[in-house]
Amino acid sequence: MDPALKTVYKEKVVPGLTEKFGYGNVQQIPGLEKVVLNSGFGKEDDRKSASENVIADLGKITGQCAVPTKAMKAISNFKLRVGDVIGARVTLRGRQMWEFLDRFINVASPTIRDFRGLSFKSFDGNGNYTVGISDHTIFPEIELDKVTRTIGFDMTIVTTAKNDEEARELLTLLGITFRKPNAAAKS
Questions:
Q1: Cα 91 from Cα 58, distance rounded (Å)
Q2: Are 98 and 108 in contact (CB under 8 A)?
Q3: In whole angstroms, what is the distance from residue 37 CA to residue 60 CA?
Q4: d(C-alpha 22, C-alpha 16), whole Å
Q5: How far is CA 63 from the centre of its chain?
Q6: Which of 54, 59, 48 is nearest to 85 (CA)?
Q7: Does the pLDDT at position 12 exceed 80?
Q8: Among 87, 117, 133, 150, which has the minimal tally of Cβ within 10 Å of its Cβ?
Q9: How confident is the model at residue 166 (pLDDT cuts 50, 70, 90)?
Q10: What one-character-per-residue DSSP string does 48-90 give?
Q11: Residue 94 class from Cβ within 10 Å (0-12 exposed, 13-18 middle, 19+ buried)?
């Protein structure tokens, strides 16, 4: 059985995109490729403890073990050596990707304080969308009384869309709420 969001994609998004853009071939219809979560904790004093917290919490949120990211360069001002752990990342594909996005769209993003929608400007020109999440406690998997530090991360949704217009329509039909362009200009 397919995840709920994948069923929405097949039943609602595919016909909607085909109608709007007039695709002649099923292979032209944009889809989701992967979702990448990336968190860096920079120059924390207790880097080892911070890395354990970030890796554990990203694992709870996604249901997949996070991979530590390491410094490629030594930077003396930050007391950073080559090979020091400076963050963590998770790449989600397939079933886990669909389930995570479903939880993000329907459960987590509405709990963001003063949520009026995600920025419509965060597309990269190639159909990929990145949004910064400043507080990981919006996810129900995180127990608030066990949180020692708030973790922020970037979430990149990689699509097979050729341009931002197709990707924006794909994500809108999936249920992601975008801020109105004129409301973003005022704030």
A1: 11
A2: no
A3: 13
A4: 10
A5: 14
A6: 48
A7: yes
A8: 150
A9: confident
A10: HHHHHHHHHHHHHHHSS--EEEE-SS-BGGGTB-TT-EEEEEE
A11: exposed
Sign of CA dihedral 162, 164, 169, 170: positive
String of DSSP letters for 111-159: GSTT---B-TT-B-SSS-EEEEES-GGGSTTS-GGG-SS---EEEEEEE
Are residues 94 and 62 in contact, defined by beta-carbon separation less than 8 angstroms? no
Read off the pTM. Answer: 0.82
155-166: average pLDDT:
89
Tell me the one-letter amino acid at 142: I
Of the candidates 122, 82, 101, the one whose C-alpha atom is nearest the C-alpha of residue 174 is 101
DSSP conformational letter for 105:
I
Please choose, from the candidates 71, 90, 85, 106, the residue with its C-alpha nearest in 3D space to the C-alpha of residue 153: 90
Q: Which residue has the tokens 């950073």?
A: 80
Q: What pLDDT sits at residue 184?
A: 45
Tokens of 52: 């354990």
Q: What is the largest CA-CA distance in the chain?
A: 56
Q: What is the pLDDT of residues 65-84, one digit of tens each?
A: 888 888 888 878 777 788 77
